[in-house]
Design goal:
This protein has 137 residues and is α+β, with helices and mostly antiparallel strands. 30% of the residues lie in helices and 26% in strands. The strands form two sheets. A three-stranded antiparallel β-sheet has the order 1-2-3, with no helix packed on it. Strands 4-5 form a two-stranded antiparallel ribbon. It comes from Dulcicalothrix desertica PCC 7102.
């Protein structure tokens, strides 16, 4: 799995995966042009989209109508000990009622999405700085 991110000028970045792209930017009050979501908003969108996918698959596998499913993801920005997102809250809404067993099944399904699992487990991030070779005179 790979996503490439290229700087597009100002405070904008273009993330490309396969043949798809999204634009990231900052709100005007942060010096951007507000032409796209911020990286933290991308993270919330990724979590919500993943939860939605797992939820729809669960519902469809049980012949339960998934139309009208919506997900809202909120998080708090915290600055201690370092800047990070915390207290994620995910609301999954369906316009139909569900039996208790399907509410529990849906809960289990969405809590097994890959982004949810990534965020709740320790993960490893390795960063490499790659620059052009230094010219020796």
């Amino acid at each position: 799995m790979q996503v490439k991110i290229n700087y597009e000028g100002q405070l904008q970045f273009k993330a490309t995966a396969r043949n798809h792209y999204i634009i990231g930017d900052q709100p005007e009050e942060n010096g951007g042009e507000d032409k796209g979501m911020t990286p933290p908003e991308w993270l919330l969108a990724s979590l919500g989209s993943c939860i939605g996918l797992y939820g729809v698959k669960y519902l469809q596998s049980r012949n339960i109508d998934s139309s009208g499913l919506s997900i809202t993801v909120n998080a708090d920005k915290s600055i201690r000990p370092v800047a990070h997102l915390d207290n994620f809250q995910v609301d999954v809404s369906l316009p139909c009622s569900l039996e208790t067993k399907h509410k529990l099944g849906l809960q289990q399904a969405i809590e097994n999405c890959i982004i949810h699992n990534t965020l709740i487990h320790s993960l490893q991030i390795t960063t490499h700085i790659i620059t052009a070779p230094t010219l020796v005179k």
